[in-house]
Amino acid sequence: MAQPIAIILLAVAIAPGLAVGSSSSVINTTCAALKILQPYDYCVGVLSADPAAAAATDVAGVAAAAVNITAVKAESTLRIITYLVDDLKTCREYYSNMLESLADVRVDLGAGRFSNASFEISVNATARPDDCDILLFEGNAHKDPFTHENGENALLVRLASGIIDLLNKNLVNHGF
Ligand SMILES: *[C@@H]1O[C@H](CO)[C@@H](O)[C@H](O)[C@H]1NC(C)=O
Ligand SMILES: *[C@@H]1O[C@H](CO)[C@@H](O)[C@H](O)[C@H]1NC(C)=O
Ligand SMILES: *[C@@H]1O[C@H](CO)[C@@H](O)[C@H](O)[C@H]1NC(C)=O
Ligand SMILES: *[C@@H]1O[C@H](CO)[C@@H](O)[C@H](O)[C@H]1NC(C)=O
Question: What is the pLDDT of residue 138?
Fold first, then answer.
């Protein structure tokens, strides 16, 4: 039950920006007929803002306009998805390189090559989460679906890198 309520609240929140006083009577009649299923103000707001819907003289005309309004939105969403897929493919490369690098770091650490491990992690791993985040942030999609994920990775890799630096600089006694 919570989800339909959330959707209605969202619709109501979006509607005021679109609300227009000059809605046609066919829009009013159509929206009034839908009142139980659709928030009236949202219905009138969305349709009144569209010239074709506002000019419609019957319900069929309003329906055609509503389909077009939806198609325009779906087209825009499809474009965003395409940008995201491209950017996420690049992010997949970044994270896959990062993982390879971490495997090398593990080998270096195991062999006691702290300076190699330190160099490797800073050159090939540390910046990757930020690279992904910047790519999505600056990308055409104007959406970053996992800035939180990137942030967690960035914190963890900096932590690992910082600890390796301690070993490398011999700031702690690492002999057991
Ligand atoms: C349609 O309804 C709105 C209020 O929702 C009202 O302001 C407007 O005058 C009405 N238009 C017609 C043509 O009935
Ligand atoms: C809907 O879109 C089609 C294709 O773009 C267009 O030919 C038609 O006139 C539009 N109809 C309305 C009511 O907006
Ligand atoms: C470790 O780094 C040194 C230079 O700092 C390099 O000569 C050496 O080949 C590296 N070892 C490995 C296993 O990468
Ligand atoms: C970093 O990655 C590149 C490309 O995979 C690799 O050639 C290089 O050896 C790695 N390590 C360092 C320290 O640059």
Answer: 93
